[in-house]
Write a structure and sequence with these properties.
CATH superfamily of the domain at 2-177 and 239-267 and 326-346: NAD(P)-binding Rossmann-like Domain
Strand order of the largest sheet: 3-2-1-4-5-7-14
Number of strands: 17
Number of helices: 10
CATH class of the domain at 2-177 and 239-267 and 326-346: Alpha Beta
Strand content: 15-25%
Largest sheet: 7 strands, parallel
Order of helices and strands: EHEHEEHEEHEEHEEEEEHEEHEHEHH
Distance between the termini: 51 Å
Structural class: alpha/beta
Helix content: 40-55%
Length: 383
Amino acid sequence: MRVLLTGVTGALGCALLPELLGKGFEVYCLIRPQSGRQAADRLREITTHPRAIALDGDITFPLCGVDPAKLPIIGKLVHAAADTSLNQASPERIVEANLEGTRNALALAEALGHPDFYYVGTAYIAGDAAVLEEQETGAPLNVGTGRNPYERSKVAAETAVRGYSGQFSVLRPSIVVGRSDDGTAPLLDGWYGFFRNITRLRESISRGNYKDEKGVKIMRGYKLQLPIGIKPTDNVPLNLIQLDWISRTEAALVALPARGRTYNLTHTKSMRLKEIIWATLEAMNMTNVTFIEDNGNWTLSPVKLALRRMVNRELDHLRPYLMHGPEFISRNLYEDLGPDWPEPPAITADFIRMTMAAAEQGWRDEAAAKAAAGSQQGASAYL
């Protein structure tokens, strides 16, 4: 059977593709041409599997920029493309990708003769609700109020999916983190984006070029207390779920006929915010940094003020998730895949340390690759 997959250049779609291929599907990968590279060029960077077929398109265009008449019969359309940015400075871009992109994918599905439609949403569609249930087939969407443009766009997109005239399934992962086996988190931003920027704090400390408000050099070994906007009560559980479990589970659900079911793909046991932050600081060799509540009475040096602004700016994107942790009800998954379907691996401090170490290595590799590409371009220009 043929599957049309969007979002294959993103974290979830990229992880889902080999799982779908492993189930024998022929997968048409809708990919936006970028920087002079066509869909086929970009797909080759991900896989050369003979049943992965590149399809030029763009979810922000009508019918995703695809001529349905030129496609063979498509049995399933999996819409995994999304803008997962929590940055509230670009709400129009988020709505264009998440709501208009979903509407365009639905219109394409209608034009293709109503294949089963599988929508990858988010469990944090819950918004400010205390509990997120799995909607019964035909029931109206019942969630809380979205707390940022991302959540609001995903509420609107899922509402649009529920109006599809064909059969559909809604897959709702929680906060996706690295693989359970090695911690790697290719293409993931979200939670990692916050800590990626925190590495600047460590770099500033290690240089030894700055002094605190008492004239003492801030350098490696300095016991830094940094006032930030986290209160002692902001120790909610965060529902993290590993990338490999999500991709295997979503592929298994895509293999089932769509029939209006909703699946909350969430972890049964969550870690609390402070545990995650401490394990992350350990992984990044930053245990000499202590985040304390900002009561407004601190005298800080210019570099500490700059660091606090940076940390609080990143925290503002995550603020809703630090103040409220909904309960997720997940029954349909085990009803449809069977009670023996494996639960997600445990999220522990050891896992957090492993995945953050893997992510930081990935950032270093990415920086080195960019530097090497820049050097090559410079040499070419010189020649």
